[in-house]
């Protein structure tokens, strides 16, 4: 669940910052959603494997970079708040790389607070 910045360094050193931990948390959330929810995605039910199961750090870097820049998103069935949260978090991670806007605790917390205030959370979820 490493941050993209650490996967393909090309000889450069990266200082471990809070933004990298927040991104790692994003990848954990993506993993949980892809492994433990019912969702729609163009890659189908094995999306988790296409994203996370690779032999080299370079391949992981390629897949994660493509993921955050993709126009496809995960639609969690019967859970619009989680779908919206995941999409917004993906955009935040993409902006960290594409617009050089580092993730911050406050920006991530705001996403979760907004999502938790949304209507549409499942009421019969056994989790």
Q: How would you describe the overall organization of this protein?
A:
- There is one protein chain.
- This protein is mainly alpha-helical and 127 residues long.
- A two-stranded antiparallel ribbon has the order 1-2.
- It is globular.
- The chain contains 5 helices and 2 strands, in the order αβααβαα.
- The model has no long low-confidence stretch (mean pLDDT 90).
- α1 runs antiparallel to α4 (80-98).
- Helices cover 54% and strands 3% of the residues.
How many E strands? 2
Q: What is the ordering of alpha helices and beta strands?
A: HEHHEHH
Low-pLDDT regions:
none
Bin the strand percentage: under 5%
Amino-to-carboxy terminus distance:
22 Å
Largest sheet: 2 strands, antiparallel
- Indicate the overall shape: globular
Structural class: mainly alpha
Helix % is 40-55%
| Averaged pLDDT | 90
Instruction: Please work out how many helical segments DSSP would assign.
Output: 5
Specify Rg, calculated over alpha carbons.
Answer: 15 Å
The strand line-up of the biggest sheet is 1-2
Secondary structure blueprint with pairings:
Layout: H1 18-36, E1 39-40, H2 47-52, H3 57-69, E2 75-76, H4 80-98, H5 105-116
Antiparallel strand pairs: 1-2
Helix pairs in contact: 1-4, 3-4, 4-5
Structure summarized in a few sentences:
The longest helix is centred in the N-terminal third of the chain and has 19 residues, at 18-36.
